[in-house]
Amino acid sequence: MPSFDFACVGDNCIDRFGAPLHQMLVGGNALNVAVQLARHGEKSAYFGAVGRDIDGDVTIKTLNQNNVSNVHTQRLDAPTAYTNLSFTPAGDRIIDFEEFGASGLYRPSCADLDILKKMRHVHIGWLKDGGTTKRFLRGHNVFVSQDLGVNAAPIDKDPQDLSLAFDSAGDDKSVARTRAIDLIKKGAKCAIVSCGAKGSVGFDGHDWAETNSTPVNVVDTTGAGDSFAAGVIAALHKGKNLQQSLEQGRDWAALTCGHPGGFPQKMASQTP
């Protein structure tokens, strides 16, 4: 059996921040969730792909430094994914360009799937596989969560049979509630929809939960949603109810807003 309890499957990237940060940091939804779980004492593993390049080396090293198992991280003949980020005068983050590289080519191997079907919980980030992985895992009764907000293709956003569906809805909680109901109607067992600075709502088909955000001196919001998801996942698996789980996710997200990138790390390199 695997020596870890949580597996995170899908994207990683190098976040290339422009002014005023001028930093390059390891990130990506699935990788950020894996790291946040490990940083809070959970045994986690990352299943994804990096290139055979320096950025790939940095990503593997960063996983090691954060005690995330990377035994099942593939190395492909493609560049490690990266995202160019800039900021408006008001401090809002803008995605200028994304190179999906190795992450865009990644699919779990048959051996990977054989490991994943034994997991306690599998979280899926950005993964362009037509929903194949989550359907396979649900067929083996694995507790599966997915961040639908980071996926683009409708087939990759299908919430059918997800144990836990994460999504986002701007800063309007009425829109978030409508979205949560829609996700449940489409087959999710539980839906959690974040509303940026307004907090989040959760719905399991019977009961609602809701939180506001924690006031914080924001340095960077990159990865805050991923930290939120990790906090919710960890809380639910410790037997906390939906309200308590949203509150833990809120608190983990607030910590992430206090530093650049999705988790504290040494600067991978500096942008020009």
UniProtKB/TrEMBL annotation:
InterPro entries: Carboh/pur_kinase_PfkB_CS, PfkB_Carbo_kinase, PfkB_dom, Ribokinase-like. The keyword Transferase applies. Keywords: Kinase, Transferase. The keyword Transferase applies. One of its GO terms (molecular function) is kinase activity. It comes from the Bacteria. Residues 25-124, 164-261 form the Carbohydrate kinase PfkB domain. Belongs to the carbohydrate kinase PfkB family. This is PfkB family carbohydrate kinase. It comes from Maritalea mediterranea. The lineage of its organism: Bacteria, Pseudomonadati, Pseudomonadota, Alphaproteobacteria, Hyphomicrobiales.
